[in-house]
Design goal:
Blueprint: E1 2-4, E2 13-16, E3 20-25, E4 33-38, E5 43-53, E6 61-65, E7 68-70, E8 73-75, E9 89-92, E10 102-103, E11 108-114, E12 121-130, E13 137-138, E14 147-151, E15 158-163, E16 167-176, E17 194-195, E18 205-211, E19 220-229, E20 237-239, E21 243-249, E22 257-264, H1 274-279
Parallel strand pairs: 1-3, 2-4, 13-15
Antiparallel strand pairs: 3-12, 4-11, 5-10, 5-12, 6-9, 6-11, 7-8, 14-22, 15-21, 16-19, 16-20, 16-22, 17-19, 18-19, 18-21
Keywords: Disulfide bond, Glycoprotein, Secreted, Signal
Family: Belongs to the CRF-binding protein family.
Function: Binds CRF and inactivates it. May prevent inappropriate pituitary-adrenal stimulation in pregnancy.
Length: 281
C-alpha cells in the first residue's frame, strides 16, 4: 500500500493500522502533525524512512516514538517500558537523517513531524513484525475476537492492555501468583478468583484501572485480582472512564496470565460517571 498524508484536517493527525509506504509533502504549514500506527497485539511496528528532506530551519523536525501519546501522557508508562524515555525517541532533520529502521517494543508507535518548509518531504515504510512474547498492548474497543490474554512469560515485568475508551471487562480465567496466601508452597488446586490481593500482601496480581489519561500512575485501580481460577467470573467490571486498562504486575517468580473479555460502553454519557466511580474505590 502507498498513500499520501494529506493535511485535510485542522490537527493533521493520522491513524493507520495497515502496512505500507506513507508520504508527506509540506505545503508550507508549520503545524505539528502525527502518524499514529496500531498493529494487532501480536506484532511490533517497524518504521523505515525511505526518503527524507526535512530542513531544520523554522523548527523542522521528524520524531519517531516507541509507544503512544495522548494529551501529554504516554503508553506504556515509563515504569512499565523496557527502555528509558530518552531511548524511546529518535529525532531527525537536515543532515541528521535516519539510517536504520526503528522498531517499537509493542504494537503501537508514532511518527511526529513538523515540516514548515514548503516542498520538504519524507516517506516512511510501515511494517509489522511478529512479536512472540507481547507484553504491553493497545487494543481497539471493537474487535472481531474481543478476548485477550495478558502474560508475563515468566518475566519480572508489568504488562498492560490499554483502551482509549470506557469498557466493560469480564474475567474468563486467571493464573496469577501460584503461591498460597500464607506464602508457603505452590498451589496445585484452584483457589477461585481472589480480590484485594495487594492488601493481602500478594505480589503478583492484575489491576483493572480507569482514568482520564494514558499514564498508569494517573489511573485509579477499580479492582485487583489474583489466584488460580479456570471459570469465568459472573460479574462484569464496568469502568466508565475515557481511558481504561488491565495491568498484570509480576515479580518474575511465576507464569502469570489473565484472560478477559471486553466490550465498549457505548453510552458516551456514562463517561461523566468516571469521577464518581473512582471516588467510590
Amino acid at each position: 500500500m502507498s498513500a499520501n498524508l494529506s493535511r485535510h484536517s485542522k490537527d493533521c493527525i493520522f491513524q493507520k493500522s495497515v502496512e505500507g509506504e506513507y508520504t508527506f509533502i509540506s505545503t508550507g504549514n508549520d503545524a505539528v502533525c502525527a502518524l499514529y500506527v496500531i498493529a494487532d497485539p501480536e506484532y511490533v511496528v517497524e518504521f523505515e524512512i525511505l526518503r527524507f528532506d526535512v530542513s531544520c530551519t523554522k523548527g523542522g523536525l521528524l520524531t519517531v516514538f516507541d509507544g503512544w501519546e495522548n494529551n501529554g501522557e504516554y503508553f506504556p508508562s515509563q515504569d512499565d517500558h523496557p527502555k528509558p524515555m530518552d531511548q524511546r525517541f529518535s529525532e531527525f532533520c537536515g543532515p541528521i537523517k535516519p539510517w536504520k529502521p526503528f522498531v517499537t517494543s509493542q504494537n503501537v508507535g508514532i511518527v511526529l513531524f513538523r515540516v514548515p518548509t514548503r516542498g520538504n518531504y519524507f516517506s516512511v515504510l510501515v511494517s509489522f513484525r511478529k512479536n512472540p512474547k507481547p507484553c504491553n498492548v493497545m487494543l481497539l474497543p471493537l474487535s472481531d475476537s474481543p478476548i485477550y490474554t495478558l502474560r508475563n512469560y515468566g518475566r519480572r515485568a508489568n504488562c498492560s492492555a490499554a483502551f482509549i475508551y470506557p469498557m466493560n471487562f469480564r474475567i474468563l480465567a486467571t493464573s496469577i501468583g501460584s503461591q498460597s496466601l500464607s506464602g508457603t508452597g505452590n498451589l496445585e488446586f484452584e483457589t477461585g478468583l481472589i480480590t484485594k490481593c495487594r492488601k493481602r500482601g500478594v505480589r503478583d496480581y492484575a489491576e483493572f484501572m480507569g482514568g482520564t489519561g494514558l499514564g498508569m500512575d494517573g489511573m485509579m485501580v477499580i479492582q485487583d485480582v489474583c489466584g488460580l481460577d479456570s471459570l469465568p467470573s459472573k460479574k462484569a467490571i464496568g469502568i466508565p472512564c475515557g481511558t481504561t486498562a488491565v495491568r498484570l504486575v509480576s515479580t518474575g517468580s511465576f507464569e502469570d496470565s489473565i484472560t478477559f473479555g471486553y466490550e465498549p460502553i457505548i453510552e458516551r454519557e456514562r463517561v461523566r460517571l468516571c469521577a464518581k466511580a473512582l471516588m467510590t474505590v
